[in-house]
Amino acid sequence: MLAEIAIIGHPNEGKSSVLSTLAEDDSVRISPYPGETTVCRSFPVLIDNREIIRFVDTPGFQNPAKILAKLKTLEGSSEARLQELLNYCRSIDELAEDYELLKPITRGAAIIYVVNGARPIRTVDRDEMEIIRLIGKPRMAVINSKQADDRYLPQWKDELARHFNSIRLFNAHHATYSERIGLLEALKSIDQDWQQIMSEVVETIKKDWDNRTRTTAHIIGSLLTESLSLKMSSQINKRADEQRVSTRLTENYTKKISGLEKSAHAQIRAQFNHNLYDYRLPAYSILHEEIFSEKTWQFLGLSKRQFMLLGGIGGGAIGAGVDVAALGHGLGLFTALGTIGGALGALGTRKNLDYQASLLGIRISGPQVSIGPAGSIALLFVLTNRALHFYKHMANWSHGRRDHESPLNSLEETGSVNYTSGWSASELKVAHDFFKTVDRPESEKHQAAAAKLEKILIGSLENISSVN
């Protein structure tokens, strides 16, 4: 038996938004105008190319009073009455959309009835609820509170309780993964025959989410290995060209790091089926900042605690050129130097080169200037925090949402963008071991450290999911 869920209700109540969020499918047409859905459309949820559940977007009720009146005249079993009602709707042109709505229910679909909790109950709502009750199929009511106004919720809950097995509050625009799972879990209770099949559906979705988490951790680990081990070099034809060549090489290096990050973020995004809608990060997001900007390193670099712990583990991993006083106050690499221009300015003389260029792994040997592998472990934490923050946006952007205003608060103000700030000393030791061996990515030591780091990343990703 394939679980099929018909999403029904009055036009413009948020049916399509609820369906899009539950099915993780942003191809569902969502319109502010009522009556846009005129025929049923199925949205299967596929995991490993196997359909585990199917949601059906239906037209809204068009003539509930007329349908209810007819239904009350019918006799026999619920199945016989439903089939007779379907035949009745099919025979009348005026009831074409109501006929469409009833088709998936006739073939055994359970019902999710969606209402807008921000408005008062009308007579037409009571007619719809009574139709669904008399049909006798497994059913759940979802109050889609699209606005902050909740003064009508007690009225809705009281009325819905007379007609439905289960009632859930669900904001389809802001629903997170855990809330989506919670709604699917609640479907177990709508009918005894549905308990086992919905348990299997929920378990499959949870396993799929775990696979996404592990895949995302691997993507972040690969990004760190590629970025921290990156090496570039360029020839110096004349001594006078030393700074110009170094500047150009550093610009190319930072562009390459940025390109690696964009590729990794695209792979993370692909885990969450954001395919059609042009999702953009909130305007205030720290991710709009360049990787090597002062603000990025201030919020996402090493904390004072991390600096001290890493110093005890192995000071060389921190980076010889980091200003200890500045970094100790939670500031990053280019806060210590001013900007990336400050780092490049240090290349003017050989005297300052050894002190500050180690931050980027810049070296000049004879006629050649080279950069990389990274000279500071702080870059590992910057890239990790940026990837974790991007994951948070992708994993918690509801597929039923169509505007660009973020549901999240201004995270820069709360300081919650530094997800690694709570890593334990043992976890920092793993990061240190990873960093110290990253220039030998094929070595057994690095492979072992990379495996341990991915487990830590999985834990961080799980924490991000569980608190939203």
Molecular structure report:
This protein is 51% helix and 10% strand. With 468 residues, it is an alpha/beta fold. The strands form two sheets. It has a six-stranded mixed β-sheet, sandwiched between helices. Strands 7-9-8 form a three-stranded antiparallel β-sheet, with helices on one face. Strand 2 and strand 3 form a beta hairpin. Helix 3 packs antiparallel against helix 4, helix 9 runs parallel beside helix 16 and helix 18 packs across helix 19. 42% of the residues are buried.
The amount of helix comes to 40-55%
Low-pLDDT sequence parts: 320-356, 404-415
Task: Quickly count the domains.
Answer: 2
| Strand segment count | 9
Mean pLDDT: 81
Strand order of the largest sheet: 2-3-1-4-5-6
| Secondary structural class | alpha/beta
How would you name the oligomeric state of the polypeptide chains in this document?
Answer: single chain
Strand content: 5-15%
Shape, principal axes of CA atoms: elongated
Number of helices: 19
- Distance N terminus to C terminus? 33 Å
